[in-house]
Amino acid sequence: MLRAIVAFVLLVLLPAAAYAQTALTLEEAINVAQEQSLEADVASFAFTSSQWAYRATEADFRPQLSLNGRAPGLDRAIDEIQQDDGSLRYVPSSRTSSSMNLQVSQALPFSGGEVFLQSSLSRVDIFGDNRFNQWQSTPLILGVSQPIFQFNELKWERRAQPLRLQIAERTFNESMAEIAVSTTQAFFEVYMTQMEVDAAAFNVAINDTIYALSRGRYEVGIIAENDLLQSELELINAQTALSDTQLEYERALDNLKLALDLPENQEVEIIPPSSIFEMDIDPAAAVQMARNNRAAPIEDNLTILEAEADLAQARAENGFAANLTASYGLNQQSTLLGGAYSDPLNQQRANITFEIPILQGGAGRAERQSAEAALERTEREIQMERREFDQEVYYEVVGLEQSQRQVEIAARADTIAARRFEVANDRYTIGRIDVTDLFDAQREKDQARSQYIQTLRDYWTSYYRVRQLTLHDFRTGEPLRVGQ
What we know:
Elements: H1 2-16, E1 23-25, H2 26-36, H3 38-60, E2 64-82, E3 88-108, E4 113-127, E5 132-148, H4 153-219, H5 225-260, E6 269-271, H6 283-293, H7 295-316, E7 321-334, E8 345-355, H8 363-429, H9 435-470, E9 472-473, E10 478-479
Parallel strand pairs: 1-6
Antiparallel strand pairs: 2-3, 3-4, 4-5, 5-7, 7-8, 9-10
Helix pairs in contact: 2-3, 2-4, 3-4, 4-5, 4-7, 4-9, 6-8, 7-8, 8-9
């Protein structure tokens, strides 16, 4: 219910008001992207398509009712008729015929066969000198068609379809989690360039003041011309950097709007996270979460199942095979419609067809060996992929823990560098240090701030990456089920 309310607000009220509230936190930006972005729509459509495909396949295993027939058709021609004495005569003929058949059938997945129940009616009319008409009815026929020692595609398909649906569900959740990762990257790209613009604007103001101060000192002979030229060069570089960062900021902001599917002219202000989540995640537990929640293990099971089906088919198609068809029912014929249903006669049909490969030139054995080798190769590849996947999850969790520590270190370094620049600026103002030391402090301040923001970005990207890999929210202790 809460999710429906959020979707209504994001998709209806916010667009209608042209996003009156332009400030977006990281979590809000992710929610918007998962609700209305083009990537979310693609993931949703893919999941819906998989659901309908599953339902369509499931319907194949339910009883099927069909009605088919042939409308009255005219057949007028001169036909070749063989006489009792063996001679041939060409006789003009004219007739019409029509038929209708109603059938209920039920597939038998456990055996690969089918049972059916039929009822049919047909009529023939002959015109000319020997004019007559005739009805033929089959009120009821119960029959079965059963392959024997053959590949049962229905059985394998019924085992595979639930796996495909599980894969679709988990892939959808993974897509939503991937949107969270990409949105985080786009969000922090805006934040980083925004901070770079602020830093560049600050540097322009500071360097303008420094240049004015340096020019005054040069005029009274306190500093050399080289220091004055360095101050002017730093001012020009700061102005150039401001122009470049403003362009990068606009590009990053447009990329974020594209990721959130916001209008191009929409004003957006981002509110960066003020803190991080302190979490102690057991890497081994995270690996187990990934195995339980991700699509990859189910995809592996499906791949093995398909390889086993290929092997079963290769064995079945190169050995004894037969088909049994049998039916029992009633039928009758008459010149009157009512008579065609009076005192019906029994109708029985049964036959068995078979095929036994005798000489194949080794083709059958080769196909079986190929299928067996393919199954073994698939199992080995999956073992390797699972180990690689477990390692990826393990080291992503370890990297997240390291990012937590690096954020604290980078925050402390940013504070120290900012304070050092303030001290250096004050000391330069009173002439206690030269301009080179001041600009060194300024560059270290900018580098420390950039490193801090980059570290924040790495942490939040890693945080949502761990959620994507495990499909588990370690803050709430619940599996991720987004948008379904």
